[in-house]
Design a protein that fits this description.
With about 450 residues, the protein is of the alpha/beta class. It has a domain of about 130 residues: Ribonuclease Inhibitor (Leucine-rich repeat, LRR (right-handed beta-alpha superhelix), Alpha-Beta Horseshoe). It has ten helices and 13 strands. A 13-stranded mixed sheet has the order 1-2-3-4-5-6-7-8-9-10-11-12-13, with helices on one face. Helix 1 runs parallel beside helix 4, helix 2 packs antiparallel against helix 4 and helix 4 runs antiparallel to helix 5. The N and C termini lie far apart (about 155 Å). The N terminus and C terminus are likely disordered.
Amino acid sequence: MTIPHPTYRAVANFYPVALIAALISLCWMGQRHQHAVQEYADLEHTLKGFFHSARDEAQEAFAAGDFQRAAALLDPTVPGAKADSTAMLLRARSLECLGYFPEAAKAYTTLEQMPGRHLAILRGKAFCQRMASERIPARVPSKEVLYRLHDELMRRGDPASARFVARKLLPDVQPLRASLRVLLHNFDAHAELVASADAGLVDVTVTRWDPQMLDLLRDLRIGSLNIAQSNLEDTRVFTGLDVCSLNLSDNRLGDLTPLRTLPLRQLRLDHTNTADVRPLAGLPLRELHLSHTLVSSIQSLSLCPLQKLDLSHTAVRSIDALRGMELRELNLSHTHVTDLSALTGMPLERLAVDGTSVHDLRAIAGAQLKYLSVAGTAIKDIDALADMPLTELDLRGCELLTDVQVLTRCPRLERVYLPRQLKAPADHWQLPRLRFIETERQPESAIAQK
């Protein structure tokens, strides 16, 4: 069979078609290659994003004290990202804080063989190996193990992790108090945490408030929290705190509504912008200080079981809301109060009405007062004080007072301050316990020694 030889014309006619086909093929292959390269790049980015995302999530979990989640998130990444020493160290620390010491020691050993090893890795490995060799394998560490782990973390300068370990040691608050003290000092070098008089509670003093402190304070059952003179302006920062006594004096506070959620028994608001105390109605307050505030009405305080109340230097005029309350101490100094009839029958032990327009004490006759100050008032007689168990009496500035002979019927009196127009008798009213007498005309104290 004879194969016809292609003529020049036939080849010339076919060449452009073949060339076009070849170009199309090359373009198609190039697009496929470019697409493949892009797909590979996208996959690589996705994988990197997965690993970085997992590590970021693990770091967040670790910072929140969720060591179990942190370790679980990092576990799949270790085989595929052996060079990521940051993730491996985080996983080792998570396992250690969980008390999984054999696994943690192994992770630290791997890290030790990588470039850039440092003292923390060596110390972590040594501690975990020692704990792994000493304790019986268990997934729930004992109290003794937790105490040792907390102390080790504190020695390493890791109070943030020690704090979460200390939570598991409650109701023993000493470890938690130690770690939180260090953390609070990062925000306020003068912050103090001491054991409260009430068992299981902690007293906290802060001189410079930072919102980040709130997360730390939520770990504690706080007996007394002192944040006076801290430039605080918003009481919403206290939401969720377990605190019994709160000192907010000398801050620019006004709205007390957020305090309604707190189980407060004592509250100091002296020298603040407080004007409305209605949000305090119904709180279990035993002690309230409102000196030098803008308060003028105390009607809502009748719903509080108060025993101590300071209203000095306020615009309060009426104290009728206090009628029938079980107050033990009341300060009405430099208010607009004129009538004390609401105090009749009240179990008061201390009362101050300095600088008021009060001129009649008959409403408190028969009271069991131990301290009374009527300095700077228009009192004309003090016969109502007969047979009171007074130990201290201040009559300075009572210019209308002419007779204090009734003091002979106050056998427990120890200290007395007299107005300038009166003198103490030579026998000091024959009071066996009287040790101190001061009159306005004498700049220095005149001491009566028996």
